[in-house]
Model the fold of this input.
Amino acid sequence: MARRVVLDQECCIACESCVELCPEVFQMDAASEKAQVILPEGGDEACIDEAIATCPVECISWEE
Done:
């Protein structure tokens, strides 16, 4: 099974860094005003890894 990108909206602080880095994978959810994953199967892995490293509250990860 392939790994998927997951984002814990409970801990998201809506800094938008992931959206700015990887807009094809993340977007802001208007209802919750937090980031969400729109392409869970991922995209550019280097971009996603950078978003994971940049997230100030570490709420983005890969799930097997």
The mean pLDDT is 95. Strands lie at 4-7, 26-29, 34-37, 60-63.
